[in-house]
Amino acid sequence: MDNNVQRDIQIQSYKHDESLHRIWEKATVIEESEDHIVVVNKRTKVIESNGRFWHTREPSVTWFYKDKWYNIIGIIKQDGIHFYCNIASPYLIDDEALKYIDYDLDIKVIDDFSYNVLDRNEYNKHKTRMAYSSKLKNILETELENLKLMIENREEPFNHDLIKSYYNKYLEDINHE
């Protein structure tokens, strides 16, 4: 590898009560900076907390941030690029995996950049059951609004060409191994 950035990692998602939510067995790091990491996956095995598993259907490019309370997935579908945004804690990486806490609220963005907020009921249930602090709830709601503005303003990474270029770089790199 030219830049020593590309390597495979596991991704682990948790809930606020520290219970394991989901594991992505393999993602390939395509870029890493001081404030974010970008990974690509294709046909990755995903293991749910109950042991059931499935494989991702479409390739995706995902941004995780060290200081922002969300992650953003660009999904390459037959009909164009879609995005899925998780309201989530900033990530951390250890010897085992990239890890973050999923806070249920999601935004689904389709090819024309129209979007819907998902899982509000699940969020409301968990914020009560897991006793989210007022400070945490404010952070999560603020970041949800920030994401909406990013989508509306087409801020990075909400750019179809950017998603394609990262995916093409991934394909080039795996073809040269």
Describe the structure.
The protein is an alpha+beta fold and 177 residues long. The chain has a single domain (7-175), classed as Beta Barrel (FomD barrel-like fold). The protein has helices at 120-129, 134-152, 160-175; strands at residues 7-14, 20-32, 36-41, 45-48, 53-55, 60-65, 70-77, 80-88, 92-93, 98-109, 115-118. It has a 7-stranded mixed barrel. The radius of gyration is 16 Å and the shape is globular. It starts with 6 loop residues before the first strand and ends with a helix. The mean pLDDT is 95.
CATH architecture: Beta Barrel
Biggest sheet record: 7 strands, mixed, barrel
What is the count of DSSP helices, taking H or I runs of 4+ residues?
Answer: 3
Helix-strand pattern: EEEEEEEEEEEHHH
What is the number of beta strands?
A: 11
Strand order of the largest sheet: 1-2-3-6-7-8-10
The radius of gyration computed from the alpha-carbon positions, rounded to a whole number of angstroms, is 16 Å
Q: What are the segments in which pLDDT stays under 50 over at least 5 consecutive residues?
A: none
Class based on secondary structure composition and strand pairing: alpha+beta
Mean model confidence by pLDDT: 95
Within the CATH hierarchy, at the fold level, what is the topology?
FomD barrel-like fold
Tell me, briefly, the overall form. globular
Content of β-strand: 35-45%
Write down the CATH class: Mainly Beta
**Whole-number total of structural domains:** 1
Q: How far apart are the termini?
A: 8 Å
What helical percentage do the residues reach? 25-40%
CATH superfamily: FomD-like
